[in-house]
Amino acid sequence: MTPDEQKKAAALAALDHVADGMKVGLGTGSTANHFIDALGARVRQGLKVICVPTSIASRQRAAALGIPLATLEEEPSLDVTVDGADEILPRGLVLIKGGGGALTREKIVAASSRKMVVIADASKLMTAQTFGRFPLPVEILPFGARATIRKIKAAIDSLGMSGEIIVRQTGGKDFITDNGGLIADCHLGHITRPTELADALIRIPGVVEQGLFTSIATVALVATGDGVETITP
Ligand code: 5RP
Predict the structure, then answer these.
(1) Residues designated as active site
(2) pTM for this structure?
(3) 102 CA to centre of ligand 1 in angstroms
(4) Which of 142, 160, 174, 195 has its CA at a distance of 20 to 30 angstroms from the CA of residue 228?
(5) Would strands 136-140 and 207-210 be described as parallel, antiparallel, or unpaired?
(6) Average pLDDT of each block of 10 consecutive residues along the chain (233 residues)?
(7) 66 with 178, same domain?
(8) H/E element, 51
(9) Domain ranges, residue 144
């Protein structure tokens, strides 16, 4: 199976976590897109759901498929959110998210759900030795961005980690999130203390949200060549 076929297999497996009448959070990214497409097909067959997207892109995709949508203001309590991840550490189901820049809304929506189902291809599965190769995205306010980044660097250093912090660019300009924020990508190479790092980053003024998801995911469905593996914390 190619990585994209694996993403699709994981997305289809996540349909088992959705039942008639549920309120469903829709993630962002190529794996979440497979789930949105599969859910759209079920809706056309008569499945009744109301969905809250985690990004403008996912909202547009779901709307085009005729999926009934609401905002989190309208539906503040959801049954399940299905979303992708950039890295998954099986022990404790710790995630890195935000490769698509949607980490803040993804975390708010997942935290408003009874369950978060993570869907991924096998390349996202890490070990304690490899976790943190993907640059950790941190959403920050544009105001005082340089000062905020200095504090992020100091927090990372104080925990015995290090690495370059790069403000994400797209087409030669700063990447701007759906919330009007910037993304500071922290190239750490290896994250040894995810919970402490998450706690330290979120305390910094100017940090809107950080991409480590700890104690949020309920289950991960990871597709490999041998099928879809179910991982719980
Ligand atoms: C977006 C995310 C995505 O879930 C993550 O980047 C994985 O993306 P993909 O499914 O395209 O590999 O966190 O902010």
Answers:
(1) 106
(2) 0.96
(3) 8
(4) 195
(5) antiparallel
(6) 96 98 98 98 98 98 98 98 98 97 98 98 97 98 98 98 97 98 98 97 98 98 95 95
(7) no
(8) strand 50-53
(9) 136-204
